[in-house]
Each structure stands twice: as C-alpha cells, then as structure tokens.
C-alpha cells in the first residue's frame, strides 16, 4: 500500500507539501499541486494516518472525491473547501475515483461511519445518492444537495460572442457524448445555432475521450471549414493552440478560441484565452451552506434546477478576433 513518502518521491516534493495539497491548504505552487494530485492518483494513495484517526473521530472529517482527469480544472476548489470546512471544525480527506463504479464504492465506504459528509466533485452518476452526499459541479441537479454550472448557458454565450465577431462556422470540442456536462454544452451550442438560423454540422463537434490532441487532429483532418472553436477546458485550448501553430494556423487571426472554464492556465497561454468564467468561490460557498444544513439535519431549501446551476460571465482576452 502506498505511503505519503511514495507520493512525495513520485511527485518530487516534500511530504509536508503532499500533506498541504491533500488537506487543501493554500500556499502551494500550482505545478506542485498538480504533481501531487497525479502521484496520489497513480499510486492510489489513501491517507492512512487520517484513516486510522477516523475510527474515533469520524465526525471531524468530510470526504472529498474527485477524478484525476478533472484535477487540473478543479484543484482550485480544494483550498476553498478546506477554508470553508474550518467554519464547521472539519478536516478534508481527498480521494480519487475515475469511474461511476469507483465513485459509488467510495461514497459507500466513506458514508458508512467514516465521514460526517461527502463532497463529490464532478460526479458522473446522476442516480448516486446518499444522505451524506453533496454533489459539487456534477450531474445530479435533481438532488437537493447539489450545485453546479450552467454549461448550456455557457456554450450558448460563447457561441453568441463568436457570432457577434462574424463567426458562423464554429467547432465544438467536448469530453464525451456520454458525459452530462458535455451534453448540456452541446445543447447550448445547438441553441445558439438555431437562434441564428444556422445549420448543425456534426463534423464540427468532436469528443476528446481523454485525448484532446486526437480530437483536434480529427477536426483538422475532417477538412470541414471552421473559423472558431469552443472548448470545455483551458487545457484543451492549449493543445489546440499548439497544433494550430504546427499547421500554420494563427490564433486568433485565422482561428479564434474560447473556453468555458477560465482556470489559471487561461491567462498564461499565448495568446491569453478568452473564457466564459464560472464563479468557483460562489460554487464552493453554496456547497458549504448545504453542508451546514446537512450537518445540522436541517432540510435544505429546495430550488429549481436552473437556480442551482450557476451562470458564468465573459472574460475577453486575446484569443478571439473578428472574422472577415
């Protein structure tokens, strides 16, 4: 079984850094945070010392489940969650689950007396339920303890912005046609086209299936004309920019790119990435409110799904230009 020493060696950081990352403490460089998250997932590391303490102090811990595939996108949540848990004198235990089955197994394990509550980030199974479970940025918006992003609105807003710049042939890169957030993204994309009486071209919608480079290559190899691309993740935009340069396509002069994420990476790209930015702090704050109601056995105020799907705002940088 992997130890914290194994994780620190693989990530090439100190054990103290590993501990700070997995507890959500601020003050860790982003590259170190990403290295620790990747190493912990690769080694299937579970914090044994904390797990042993759970036997007598179960109520002091809140389990946090996330996927390594989403780690880059949602690692910024962890310090916010850790800070929010201080209000309830709780500590965070981070676990990784890559599939619906792994998520379900962890929810059951942590829920059976180990943790006073569980926060599932980016959950893939809308039917996964537990009286201790809070869905954060997942698919279960029909659950009373759930809060997420309005991907449909984000995609529609991104397309409308591109259309205002004269773009009509807009490509879309999604995660998977089996992923709920991707399906919502396609829904918003189609709505934007429909509102402008533009036809839907299936060849302009490509899936990454965990391989964004392959998705961009599929788009390029389709020989389908496009002047702009909407991506779900900033990292996908980074891959697209690099490949476009290799194919002598200048961004944004020849191809514009907009993301519906807005992580720290967005401002570091060349050119800086235009995004539909989501309010991560608001998302975590709302999940902490739900946590308080759950811990105090108070029924949460039931809201319409649309009210529990937060809308983003446009952050215009330099990756979109007017199409001529």
From TrEMBL:
Disordered, as annotated region: 299-324
UniProt xrefs under Pfam families: LacI, Peripla_BP_3
Molecular-function GO terms, alphabetical: DNA-binding transcription factor activity; transcription cis-regulatory region binding
Coiled-coil residue windows: none
Residue intervals of the HTH lacI-type domain: 2-56
Gene3D superfamilies, sorted: 3.40.50.2300, lambda repressor-like DNA-binding domains
Keywords assigned: DNA-binding, Transcription, Transcription regulation
Keyword Transcription regulation: yes
Superkingdom to which the source organism belongs: Bacteria
InterPro entries referenced in this protein's UniProt entry, alphabetically: HTH_LacI, LacI/GalR-like_sensor, Lambda_DNA-bd_dom_sf, Peripla_BP_I
Stated name of the protein: Transcriptional regulator
Organism listed in the record: Photobacterium profundum (strain SS9)
